[in-house]
Amino acid sequence: MPQITVIEHLLYHQKESPMATGRFTRLLSEMILSGKIINQEVNKAGLVEILGLTGETNIQGEKVRKLDEFANQVLVHRLQQAGVLCALASEENADLILVPEDCPRGDYIIIFDPLDGSSNIDANVSIGTIFSIFRRISTGEEPVTLNDVLQKGARQVAAGYIIYGSSTMLVYTTGNGVHGFTLDPSVGEFLLSHPDIKIPERGKIYSVNEGYWHYWDQATRNAVDYFKNPDNDSKRVYRSRYIGSLVADFHRNLLYGGIFLYPADTKDPACSHGKLRLMCEANPLAMIVEQAGGMATDGINRILDLQPKELHERVPLVIGSKLDVLQVEKFMRAGAASGA
Ligand code: FDP
């Protein structure tokens, strides 16, 4: 395969992709450079004083890890200077970050989770950076407000993630398929390794934290039970795989086929509407999975059609191979109809 970098790939497909403007290319370049910087730090984390907690708690009520904070600072600093954004939102910051007036600005808005799966960092498990890109709704003359950011996922112009795993990969879409690039450390470039990724229509893997079984409603238990029951109507034997790091679980299922669920539960009030964040986790992964031929719902409704009401809103997430997601939907609809 010829060695094609992300930016070359974007430029080759310029005709199909309205996103291949100089301004979008600039934004993606900053994202790529930030990813390389974070990757360096993740790789040497055991050698330098960057493992462990900072002692702070973030807006989600979670303990902040030093690598989380590092990744967030790199992204905020680099992206602010890209000259093409008017606002940024991070999982780690309570409020919207407006690009300062003395910096060049543009019409794009980026929302990101700087280091997802961070509770796994100290144990060397794969983690990732997830991002979602919109255009602002208001015109350049008006001040940017939260309304510019609280857009349905269907309006995303691009989405992607960088996974720091056995190799480091960037996977992204601008609405023309999903493409994966692997970082070649010898040249320091992400090279095209997985063109036009398609998720199998039905998978053989289900990923969910079954430790929460007793905190789920009956419909969720019935849905998960389906994947455990060899007599289910697909007659497939599903394997259970749960890393507990969303990007890693999602990435595996995207390539092999499968379903990931993080349903609502009663274990703690914060998860009564699910744990994962609509804007920085569910939306970008939903755009990617749909572009790859899969589906993403909150159990019943399409994730990309949900109207966010606040920046850090949580949502139940059912995402992966189309027929498996539809299967879960049947149980959830039956549960909703019976009030279970
Ligand atoms: P983490 O708390 O480690 O940041 O987004 C949060 C997340 O990880 C996801 O990456 C992961 O899928 C999920 O939480 C794991 O939650 P549980 O430990 O509750 O299963």
Automatic annotation (TrEMBL):
Catalytic activity: beta-D-fructose 1,6-bisphosphate + H2O = beta-D-fructose 6-phosphate + phosphate
Fructose-1-6-bisphosphatase class 1 C-terminal domain boundaries: 199-332
GO molecular function annotations of the record: fructose 1,6-bisphosphate 1-phosphatase activity; magnesium ion binding
CC cofactor note: Binds 2 magnesium ions per subunit.
Keywords: Carbohydrate metabolism, Cytoplasm, Hydrolase, Magnesium, Metal-binding
Residues holding Mg(2+) 1: E91, D113, L115
BP GO terms, sorted: fructose 1,6-bisphosphate metabolic process; fructose 6-phosphate metabolic process; fructose metabolic process; gluconeogenesis; sucrose biosynthetic process
Gene3D superfamilies, per database record: 3.40.190.80, Fructose-1,6-Bisphosphatase, subunit A, domain 1 (3.30.540.10)
Subunit structure: Homotetramer.
Protein name according to UniProt: Fructose-1,6-bisphosphatase class 1
Lineage per the UniProt record: Bacteria, Pseudomonadati, Thermodesulfobacteriota, Desulfovibrionia, Desulfovibrionales
Gene transcribed to yield this protein: fbp
